[in-house]
Amino acid sequence: MKITKDLYQSSLALLTDFYQLTMAYAYWKSGKAEQEAVFNLFFRKNPFQGGYTIAAGLDYIIDYCRNFRFDEADLEYLEEMQNSDGSPTFQKEFIEYLRNLDFSCDIEAVEEGTVVFPNIPIVKVKGPLIQCQLLETPLLNIINFQTLIATKASRITEAAKGQSVLEFGLRRAQGIDGALAASRASYIGGCSATSNVMAGKLFDIPVSGTHAHSWIMSFDSELEAFHAYADAFPDKCVFLVDTYDTINGVKNAIEVGKSLREKGKEMVGIRIDSGDLAYYSTIARDMLDEGGFPKAQIVASNDLDEQIITSLKIQDARIDIWGVGTKLVTAYDQPALGAVYKLAAIRKSSGEWEPKVKVSQQSIKINIPGDHDVVRFVKSGKALADMIYLTGNPVEKNNYVIIDPNDPTKRKKININGLEKDNLLKPIFEKGKKVYLRPDIHQIRENAKRNLELFDKAHKRLVNPHIYPVGLEEGLYNLRTDLVLKMKNYDE
Protein backbone atom coordinates (compact mmCIF):
# COMPACT_ATOMS: atom_id res chain seq x y z
CA MET A 1 0.00 0.00 0.00
CA LYS A 2 1.29 3.47 -0.86
CA ILE A 3 2.01 5.49 2.26
CA THR A 4 1.18 9.16 1.90
CA LYS A 5 3.92 11.60 2.85
CA ASP A 6 3.85 15.41 2.96
CA LEU A 7 0.37 15.56 4.46
CA TYR A 8 0.71 19.33 4.54
CA GLN A 9 2.00 20.32 1.13
CA SER A 10 0.71 23.88 1.04
CA SER A 11 2.13 26.78 3.04
CA LEU A 12 1.34 26.69 6.74
CA ALA A 13 3.70 29.52 7.67
CA LEU A 14 0.81 31.54 9.14
CA LEU A 15 -0.17 28.70 11.47
CA THR A 16 1.51 30.57 14.27
CA ASP A 17 0.91 33.03 17.06
CA PHE A 18 0.96 36.67 16.01
CA TYR A 19 3.70 37.46 18.49
CA GLN A 20 6.04 35.13 16.58
CA LEU A 21 5.65 37.42 13.58
CA THR A 22 6.04 40.60 15.63
CA MET A 23 9.24 39.18 17.17
CA ALA A 24 10.44 38.13 13.71
CA TYR A 25 9.88 41.67 12.49
CA ALA A 26 11.69 43.12 15.50
CA TYR A 27 14.61 40.72 15.00
CA TRP A 28 14.83 41.89 11.40
CA LYS A 29 14.60 45.57 12.37
CA SER A 30 17.33 45.19 15.00
CA GLY A 31 19.68 43.27 12.70
CA LYS A 32 19.41 40.03 14.67
CA ALA A 33 17.43 37.97 12.16
CA GLU A 34 20.43 35.94 10.97
CA GLN A 35 22.13 35.58 14.36
CA GLU A 36 22.46 31.89 15.17
CA ALA A 37 20.54 30.44 18.08
CA VAL A 38 19.65 27.13 19.70
CA PHE A 39 16.14 26.36 20.93
CA ASN A 40 14.94 23.25 22.76
CA LEU A 41 11.45 21.78 22.85
CA PHE A 42 10.75 19.81 26.03
CA PHE A 43 8.09 19.20 28.67
CA ARG A 44 8.25 19.55 32.43
CA LYS A 45 6.01 16.76 33.76
CA ASN A 46 4.95 13.35 32.46
CA PRO A 47 1.26 13.43 31.50
CA PHE A 48 -1.52 11.59 33.36
CA GLN A 49 0.60 11.50 36.55
CA GLY A 50 2.49 8.71 34.83
CA GLY A 51 6.08 7.59 34.83
CA TYR A 52 6.93 7.95 31.14
CA THR A 53 6.00 9.62 27.85
CA ILE A 54 6.02 8.40 24.23
CA ALA A 55 7.44 10.90 21.71
CA ALA A 56 5.34 11.40 18.59
CA GLY A 57 4.84 13.96 15.84
CA LEU A 58 8.27 14.11 14.20
CA ASP A 59 6.95 12.99 10.81
CA TYR A 60 4.56 15.96 10.75
CA ILE A 61 7.46 18.28 11.65
CA ILE A 62 9.50 16.95 8.73
CA ASP A 63 6.62 17.71 6.36
CA TYR A 64 6.12 21.15 7.87
CA CYS A 65 9.77 22.15 7.59
CA ARG A 66 10.21 20.77 4.09
CA ASN A 67 7.31 22.91 2.93
CA PHE A 68 8.04 25.96 5.10
CA ARG A 69 7.61 29.14 3.09
CA PHE A 70 5.45 32.23 2.88
CA ASP A 71 3.39 32.06 -0.30
CA GLU A 72 1.98 35.07 -2.09
CA ALA A 73 -1.39 34.87 -0.34
CA ASP A 74 0.38 34.84 3.06
CA LEU A 75 2.48 37.84 2.14
CA GLU A 76 -0.49 39.77 0.81
CA TYR A 77 -2.34 39.18 4.08
CA LEU A 78 0.63 40.39 6.13
CA GLU A 79 1.15 43.40 3.88
CA GLU A 80 -2.43 44.52 4.45
CA MET A 81 -2.11 44.48 8.25
CA GLN A 82 -2.27 47.91 9.86
CA ASN A 83 -1.41 49.48 13.18
CA SER A 84 -4.00 51.45 15.13
CA ASP A 85 -2.93 54.65 13.35
CA GLY A 86 -3.46 53.09 9.94
CA SER A 87 0.22 52.60 9.16
CA PRO A 88 1.41 49.21 7.86
CA THR A 89 2.29 46.75 10.60
CA PHE A 90 5.20 45.39 8.57
CA GLN A 91 7.46 47.31 6.18
CA LYS A 92 7.54 46.21 2.56
CA GLU A 93 11.23 45.36 2.92
CA PHE A 94 10.35 42.85 5.64
CA ILE A 95 7.65 41.33 3.44
CA GLU A 96 10.29 40.94 0.74
CA TYR A 97 12.64 39.32 3.29
CA LEU A 98 9.95 36.76 4.09
CA ARG A 99 9.32 36.17 0.38
CA ASN A 100 12.94 35.08 -0.04
CA LEU A 101 13.21 33.16 3.25
CA ASP A 102 14.54 29.64 2.76
CA PHE A 103 14.47 27.15 5.62
CA SER A 104 18.10 26.53 6.62
CA CYS A 105 18.05 25.24 10.20
CA ASP A 106 19.68 22.19 11.72
CA ILE A 107 17.17 20.03 13.55
CA GLU A 108 17.91 17.11 15.84
CA ALA A 109 15.08 15.18 17.45
CA VAL A 110 14.17 12.12 19.44
CA GLU A 111 12.77 9.48 17.11
CA GLU A 112 9.05 8.81 17.28
CA GLY A 113 8.13 5.99 19.61
CA THR A 114 11.01 6.75 21.98
CA VAL A 115 10.25 6.78 25.68
CA VAL A 116 11.13 10.25 26.99
CA PHE A 117 11.02 12.11 30.28
CA PRO A 118 10.76 15.67 31.62
CA ASN A 119 13.48 18.16 30.63
CA ILE A 120 14.83 15.99 27.80
CA PRO A 121 14.94 17.95 24.53
CA ILE A 122 12.54 16.21 22.16
CA VAL A 123 13.46 18.60 19.35
CA LYS A 124 16.54 20.84 19.12
CA VAL A 125 16.56 23.61 16.52
CA LYS A 126 19.74 25.48 15.56
CA GLY A 127 19.90 28.19 12.94
CA PRO A 128 19.03 31.81 12.19
CA LEU A 129 17.21 33.32 15.14
CA ILE A 130 14.25 34.44 13.04
CA GLN A 131 13.67 30.95 11.63
CA CYS A 132 14.03 29.26 15.00
CA GLN A 133 11.47 31.67 16.42
CA LEU A 134 8.97 31.16 13.60
CA LEU A 135 9.07 27.39 14.18
CA GLU A 136 8.09 27.59 17.85
CA THR A 137 4.30 27.53 17.64
CA PRO A 138 3.84 24.90 14.91
CA LEU A 139 6.39 22.55 16.46
CA LEU A 140 4.72 22.83 19.85
CA ASN A 141 1.29 22.33 18.29
CA ILE A 142 2.44 19.12 16.60
CA ILE A 143 4.51 17.60 19.41
CA ASN A 144 2.23 18.54 22.30
CA PHE A 145 -0.82 16.77 20.91
CA GLN A 146 0.63 13.70 19.26
CA THR A 147 2.98 12.95 22.16
CA LEU A 148 0.08 13.28 24.59
CA ILE A 149 -2.14 10.88 22.61
CA ALA A 150 0.64 8.36 21.95
CA THR A 151 1.30 8.27 25.69
CA LYS A 152 -2.38 7.80 26.50
CA ALA A 153 -2.60 4.98 23.96
CA SER A 154 0.47 3.35 25.47
CA ARG A 155 -1.02 3.46 28.96
CA ILE A 156 -4.26 1.94 27.68
CA THR A 157 -2.49 -0.83 25.79
CA GLU A 158 -0.31 -1.53 28.83
CA ALA A 159 -3.50 -1.93 30.86
CA ALA A 160 -4.86 -4.33 28.23
CA LYS A 161 -1.83 -6.58 28.84
CA GLY A 162 -1.29 -7.80 25.32
CA GLN A 163 -4.90 -7.77 24.15
CA SER A 164 -5.84 -5.69 21.12
CA VAL A 165 -7.00 -2.11 21.59
CA LEU A 166 -8.98 -0.50 18.77
CA GLU A 167 -9.14 3.30 18.48
CA PHE A 168 -12.77 4.35 17.92
CA GLY A 169 -12.51 8.09 18.54
CA LEU A 170 -13.15 9.87 15.23
CA ARG A 171 -16.62 11.18 16.07
CA ARG A 172 -15.50 12.58 19.43
CA ALA A 173 -12.12 13.98 18.36
CA GLN A 174 -11.19 17.65 18.32
CA GLY A 175 -11.97 18.39 14.69
CA ILE A 176 -10.77 16.79 11.48
CA ASP A 177 -7.05 17.35 11.97
CA GLY A 178 -7.26 16.36 15.62
CA ALA A 179 -8.93 13.11 14.62
CA LEU A 180 -6.27 12.26 12.04
CA ALA A 181 -3.37 13.11 14.33
CA ALA A 182 -4.99 11.19 17.18
CA SER A 183 -5.45 8.07 15.05
CA ARG A 184 -1.82 8.20 13.98
CA ALA A 185 -0.51 8.79 17.51
CA SER A 186 -2.77 6.08 18.94
CA TYR A 187 -1.33 3.53 16.54
CA ILE A 188 2.21 4.57 17.48
CA GLY A 189 1.26 4.18 21.14
CA GLY A 190 0.13 0.60 20.63
CA CYS A 191 -3.42 0.48 19.28
CA SER A 192 -3.99 -2.29 16.73
CA ALA A 193 -6.33 -0.46 14.38
CA THR A 194 -8.51 2.62 13.94
CA SER A 195 -12.09 3.22 12.87
CA ASN A 196 -10.88 6.31 10.97
CA VAL A 197 -10.81 5.33 7.28
CA MET A 198 -9.03 8.49 6.16
CA ALA A 199 -6.28 7.85 8.72
CA GLY A 200 -6.07 4.33 7.34
CA LYS A 201 -5.52 5.69 3.85
CA LEU A 202 -3.11 8.50 4.76
CA PHE A 203 -0.97 6.62 7.27
CA ASP A 204 -1.38 2.95 6.31
CA ILE A 205 -3.04 2.12 9.64
CA PRO A 206 -5.27 -0.99 9.76
CA VAL A 207 -8.96 -0.06 9.92
CA SER A 208 -11.61 -1.90 11.85
CA GLY A 209 -15.35 -1.70 12.48
CA THR A 210 -18.63 -3.62 12.26
CA HIS A 211 -22.02 -1.96 12.63
CA ALA A 212 -23.91 0.37 14.94
CA HIS A 213 -27.20 0.15 16.79
CA SER A 214 -28.88 1.95 13.91
CA TRP A 215 -28.26 -1.11 11.73
CA ILE A 216 -30.19 -3.28 14.17
CA MET A 217 -32.95 -0.72 14.61
CA SER A 218 -33.50 -0.40 10.87
CA PHE A 219 -34.85 -3.98 10.75
CA ASP A 220 -38.03 -5.44 12.24
CA SER A 221 -35.99 -7.65 14.56
CA GLU A 222 -32.45 -8.05 15.84
CA LEU A 223 -32.27 -11.57 14.45
CA GLU A 224 -33.19 -10.36 10.96
CA ALA A 225 -30.51 -7.65 11.22
CA PHE A 226 -27.85 -10.19 12.21
CA HIS A 227 -28.77 -12.48 9.31
CA ALA A 228 -28.60 -9.58 6.86
CA TYR A 229 -25.20 -8.51 8.16
CA ALA A 230 -23.94 -12.08 7.94
CA ASP A 231 -25.05 -12.18 4.31
CA ALA A 232 -23.10 -9.00 3.59
CA PHE A 233 -19.94 -9.85 5.54
CA PRO A 234 -19.82 -13.61 6.14
CA ASP A 235 -16.09 -13.50 6.97
CA LYS A 236 -16.16 -10.51 9.32
CA CYS A 237 -19.16 -10.99 11.54
CA VAL A 238 -18.92 -9.24 14.87
CA PHE A 239 -22.44 -8.63 16.13
CA LEU A 240 -23.37 -5.71 18.39
CA VAL A 241 -25.58 -7.45 20.95
CA ASP A 242 -26.78 -4.74 23.36
CA THR A 243 -29.33 -2.79 21.26
CA TYR A 244 -32.32 -4.18 23.17
CA ASP A 245 -31.26 -6.91 25.58
CA THR A 246 -27.66 -8.12 25.79
CA ILE A 247 -28.34 -11.72 26.78
CA ASN A 248 -30.98 -12.15 24.09
CA GLY A 249 -28.59 -10.47 21.65
CA VAL A 250 -25.95 -13.10 22.40
CA LYS A 251 -28.54 -15.82 21.78
CA ASN A 252 -29.35 -14.30 18.39
CA ALA A 253 -25.66 -14.03 17.53
CA ILE A 254 -25.18 -17.71 18.33
CA GLU A 255 -28.14 -18.66 16.15
CA VAL A 256 -26.77 -16.68 13.20
CA GLY A 257 -23.30 -18.05 13.94
CA LYS A 258 -24.62 -21.58 13.48
CA SER A 259 -26.16 -20.61 10.17
CA LEU A 260 -22.83 -19.19 9.07
CA ARG A 261 -21.06 -22.39 10.06
CA GLU A 262 -23.40 -24.42 7.90
CA LYS A 263 -22.14 -22.30 4.97
CA GLY A 264 -18.51 -22.94 5.88
CA LYS A 265 -18.01 -19.57 7.58
CA GLU A 266 -17.25 -18.70 11.18
CA MET A 267 -18.58 -15.93 13.42
CA VAL A 268 -15.72 -13.71 14.59
CA GLY A 269 -17.38 -12.49 17.77
CA ILE A 270 -19.72 -10.06 19.50
CA ARG A 271 -19.47 -6.52 20.82
CA ILE A 272 -20.95 -5.16 24.06
CA ASP A 273 -21.25 -1.38 24.20
CA SER A 274 -23.20 -0.71 27.41
CA GLY A 275 -24.12 -1.98 30.82
CA ASP A 276 -22.03 -3.91 33.33
CA LEU A 277 -19.22 -5.09 31.08
CA ALA A 278 -17.72 -7.45 33.66
CA TYR A 279 -21.06 -9.16 34.27
CA TYR A 280 -22.29 -9.34 30.68
CA SER A 281 -18.94 -10.41 29.25
CA THR A 282 -18.82 -13.32 31.70
CA ILE A 283 -22.36 -14.40 30.85
CA ALA A 284 -21.67 -13.98 27.14
CA ARG A 285 -18.48 -16.05 27.34
CA ASP A 286 -20.30 -18.92 28.99
CA MET A 287 -23.11 -18.74 26.41
CA LEU A 288 -20.69 -18.66 23.47
CA ASP A 289 -18.67 -21.58 24.83
CA GLU A 290 -21.76 -23.66 25.50
CA GLY A 291 -23.17 -22.73 22.07
CA GLY A 292 -20.09 -24.14 20.36
CA PHE A 293 -18.17 -20.88 19.78
CA PRO A 294 -15.21 -20.95 22.17
CA LYS A 295 -13.06 -19.01 19.71
CA ALA A 296 -15.56 -16.18 19.21
CA GLN A 297 -14.10 -13.01 20.63
CA ILE A 298 -15.81 -10.50 22.88
CA VAL A 299 -15.22 -6.85 22.06
CA ALA A 300 -16.04 -4.25 24.71
CA SER A 301 -16.52 -0.50 24.31
CA ASN A 302 -18.28 2.26 26.30
CA ASP A 303 -16.08 5.14 27.51
CA LEU A 304 -13.13 2.94 28.37
CA ASP A 305 -9.70 4.09 29.52
CA GLU A 306 -6.72 2.50 31.27
CA GLN A 307 -8.28 2.76 34.72
CA ILE A 308 -11.57 1.12 33.69
CA ILE A 309 -9.76 -1.60 31.74
CA THR A 310 -7.61 -2.34 34.80
CA SER A 311 -10.71 -2.51 36.97
CA LEU A 312 -12.46 -4.87 34.55
CA LYS A 313 -9.45 -7.15 34.49
CA ILE A 314 -9.41 -7.25 38.30
CA GLN A 315 -13.06 -8.32 38.08
CA ASP A 316 -12.07 -11.16 35.70
CA ALA A 317 -14.10 -9.71 32.83
CA ARG A 318 -14.05 -12.05 29.82
CA ILE A 319 -13.11 -9.44 27.26
CA ASP A 320 -10.71 -10.10 24.37
CA ILE A 321 -10.61 -6.78 22.50
CA TRP A 322 -11.04 -3.25 23.77
CA GLY A 323 -12.62 -0.45 21.74
CA VAL A 324 -11.52 2.92 23.13
CA GLY A 325 -12.67 6.26 21.77
CA THR A 326 -13.44 9.51 23.59
CA LYS A 327 -11.05 9.17 26.51
CA LEU A 328 -8.18 8.28 24.21
CA VAL A 329 -8.39 10.76 21.33
CA THR A 330 -9.28 13.71 23.58
CA ALA A 331 -6.77 12.77 26.30
CA TYR A 332 -9.84 13.11 28.50
CA ASP A 333 -8.12 13.43 31.89
CA GLN A 334 -5.35 15.80 30.74
CA PRO A 335 -6.09 17.97 27.71
CA ALA A 336 -2.53 19.27 27.11
CA LEU A 337 1.03 18.03 27.52
CA GLY A 338 2.44 21.46 28.31
CA ALA A 339 5.65 21.21 26.29
CA VAL A 340 7.61 24.45 25.92
CA TYR A 341 10.20 25.84 23.50
CA LYS A 342 13.04 27.82 25.04
CA LEU A 343 16.11 29.66 23.84
CA ALA A 344 19.16 27.82 25.19
CA ALA A 345 22.11 29.53 23.50
CA ILE A 346 22.96 32.30 21.05
CA ARG A 347 26.11 32.85 19.00
CA LYS A 348 27.94 36.09 19.73
CA SER A 349 29.70 38.17 17.12
CA SER A 350 32.98 36.63 18.29
CA GLY A 351 31.71 33.25 17.15
CA GLU A 352 31.39 31.83 20.67
CA TRP A 353 28.13 30.37 21.93
CA GLU A 354 26.58 32.13 24.90
CA PRO A 355 24.30 29.93 27.04
CA LYS A 356 20.97 31.47 27.96
CA VAL A 357 18.76 30.76 30.95
CA LYS A 358 15.22 31.79 31.88
CA VAL A 359 15.01 32.50 35.61
CA SER A 360 11.83 31.80 37.58
CA GLN A 361 10.70 31.63 41.19
CA GLN A 362 9.64 28.08 40.34
CA SER A 363 12.66 25.83 39.85
CA ILE A 364 10.69 23.65 37.43
CA LYS A 365 10.45 26.63 35.04
CA ILE A 366 14.19 27.33 34.89
CA ASN A 367 15.35 25.99 31.54
CA ILE A 368 18.58 24.13 30.83
CA PRO A 369 21.09 26.44 29.15
CA GLY A 370 23.58 25.75 26.40
CA ASP A 371 23.73 23.53 23.35
CA HIS A 372 23.12 20.19 24.99
CA ASP A 373 22.37 16.56 24.16
CA VAL A 374 21.06 13.54 26.04
CA VAL A 375 22.45 10.04 26.37
CA ARG A 376 20.62 6.98 27.70
CA PHE A 377 22.65 4.41 29.59
CA VAL A 378 21.52 0.81 29.13
CA LYS A 379 22.74 -2.35 30.86
CA SER A 380 21.66 -5.86 29.88
CA GLY A 381 18.67 -4.56 27.96
CA LYS A 382 17.43 -2.27 30.70
CA ALA A 383 17.62 1.52 30.81
CA LEU A 384 19.50 2.81 33.87
CA ALA A 385 19.41 6.60 33.56
CA ASP A 386 19.43 9.51 31.11
CA MET A 387 22.09 12.21 31.28
CA ILE A 388 21.77 15.69 29.75
CA TYR A 389 25.18 17.14 28.92
CA LEU A 390 26.80 19.95 26.94
CA THR A 391 27.40 19.01 23.30
CA GLY A 392 31.04 20.05 23.44
CA ASN A 393 31.77 17.57 26.23
CA PRO A 394 31.53 14.03 24.75
CA VAL A 395 30.65 11.22 27.14
CA GLU A 396 34.08 9.65 27.54
CA LYS A 397 34.86 9.64 31.27
CA ASN A 398 34.38 6.48 33.34
CA ASN A 399 32.36 8.07 36.11
CA TYR A 400 29.60 10.66 36.09
CA VAL A 401 27.24 12.24 38.57
CA ILE A 402 23.83 13.31 37.32
CA ILE A 403 21.77 15.82 39.29
CA ASP A 404 18.02 16.29 39.20
CA PRO A 405 17.46 19.77 37.71
CA ASN A 406 14.67 20.52 40.18
CA ASP A 407 16.14 18.95 43.33
CA PRO A 408 19.93 19.01 43.77
CA THR A 409 19.70 16.49 46.62
CA LYS A 410 18.65 13.83 44.09
CA ARG A 411 21.88 12.58 42.55
CA LYS A 412 23.03 9.38 40.91
CA LYS A 413 26.55 8.09 40.31
CA ILE A 414 27.10 6.29 37.02
CA ASN A 415 30.09 4.19 36.02
CA ILE A 416 29.77 3.79 32.27
CA ASN A 417 32.08 0.79 31.95
CA GLY A 418 30.10 -2.04 30.36
CA LEU A 419 27.11 0.18 29.64
CA GLU A 420 25.56 0.79 26.24
CA LYS A 421 25.11 4.44 25.27
CA ASP A 422 22.21 5.64 23.14
CA ASN A 423 22.37 9.25 21.99
CA LEU A 424 18.68 10.10 21.81
CA LEU A 425 18.85 13.14 19.53
CA LYS A 426 19.19 12.12 15.88
CA PRO A 427 20.05 14.47 12.96
CA ILE A 428 16.89 15.31 10.99
CA PHE A 429 17.84 18.42 8.97
CA GLU A 430 21.27 19.87 8.23
CA LYS A 431 21.25 23.43 6.87
CA GLY A 432 17.63 22.92 5.86
CA LYS A 433 18.22 19.65 4.00
CA LYS A 434 16.60 16.47 5.27
CA VAL A 435 19.21 13.86 6.24
CA TYR A 436 16.94 11.50 8.18
CA LEU A 437 15.60 8.29 6.68
CA ARG A 438 11.94 8.33 7.67
CA PRO A 439 10.66 5.02 9.05
CA ASP A 440 7.13 3.93 8.20
CA ILE A 441 4.46 4.00 10.86
CA HIS A 442 4.74 0.27 11.55
CA GLN A 443 8.46 0.66 12.29
CA ILE A 444 7.66 3.60 14.57
CA ARG A 445 5.09 1.50 16.42
CA GLU A 446 7.66 -1.29 16.85
CA ASN A 447 10.17 1.28 18.10
CA ALA A 448 7.69 2.29 20.81
CA LYS A 449 7.21 -1.32 21.79
CA ARG A 450 10.98 -1.98 21.98
CA ASN A 451 11.52 1.23 23.94
CA LEU A 452 8.96 0.30 26.56
CA GLU A 453 10.69 -3.05 27.06
CA LEU A 454 13.79 -1.14 28.22
CA PHE A 455 11.98 0.04 31.32
CA ASP A 456 11.01 -1.73 34.50
CA LYS A 457 7.34 -2.33 35.25
CA ALA A 458 7.67 0.05 38.18
CA HIS A 459 8.18 2.94 35.77
CA LYS A 460 5.12 1.94 33.74
CA ARG A 461 2.55 1.32 36.44
CA LEU A 462 -0.50 3.57 36.31
CA VAL A 463 -0.52 4.70 39.92
CA ASN A 464 2.50 6.18 41.76
CA PRO A 465 5.09 5.03 39.22
CA HIS A 466 8.73 4.81 40.22
CA ILE A 467 10.62 7.87 38.96
CA TYR A 468 13.19 7.07 36.29
CA PRO A 469 16.45 8.97 36.90
CA VAL A 470 17.09 11.83 34.49
CA GLY A 471 19.67 14.41 35.42
CA LEU A 472 22.13 17.05 34.35
CA GLU A 473 25.80 16.17 34.06
CA GLU A 474 27.52 17.83 37.02
CA GLY A 475 29.30 20.46 34.90
CA LEU A 476 26.06 21.44 33.15
CA TYR A 477 24.26 21.65 36.48
CA ASN A 478 26.95 23.98 37.83
CA LEU A 479 26.77 26.13 34.69
CA ARG A 480 23.03 26.44 35.11
CA THR A 481 23.36 27.36 38.78
CA ASP A 482 26.01 29.99 38.07
CA LEU A 483 23.89 31.56 35.32
CA VAL A 484 20.82 31.70 37.56
CA LEU A 485 22.81 33.37 40.35
CA LYS A 486 24.25 35.83 37.87
CA MET A 487 20.82 36.72 36.47
CA LYS A 488 19.57 37.25 40.04
CA ASN A 489 22.59 39.48 40.77
CA TYR A 490 23.83 37.15 43.50
CA ASP A 491 27.37 37.09 42.18
CA GLU A 492 29.86 39.22 44.04
Automatic annotation (TrEMBL):
The lineage of its organism: Bacteria, Pseudomonadati, Bacteroidota, Cytophagia, Cytophagales. Residues 373-479 form the Nicotinate phosphoribosyltransferase C-terminal domain. It comes from Mongoliibacter ruber. Residues 167-349 form the Nicotinate/nicotinamide phosphoribosyltransferase domain. Catalyzes the first step in the biosynthesis of NAD from nicotinic acid, the ATP-dependent synthesis of beta-nicotinate D-ribonucleotide from nicotinate and 5-phospho-D-ribose 1-phosphate. InterPro entries: Aldolase_TIM, N/Namide_PRibTrfase, NAPRTase_C, NAPRTase_N, Nic_PRibTrfase-Fam, Nic_PRibTrfase_pncB, Nicotinate_pribotase-like_C. Residues 14-144 form the Nicotinate phosphoribosyltransferase N-terminal domain. One of its GO terms (cellular component) is cytosol. Gene3D superfamilies: Aldolase class I (3.20.20.70), nicotinate phosphoribosyltransferase (3.20.140.10). This is Nicotinate phosphoribosyltransferase. One of its GO terms (biological process) is NAD+ biosynthetic process via the salvage pathway.
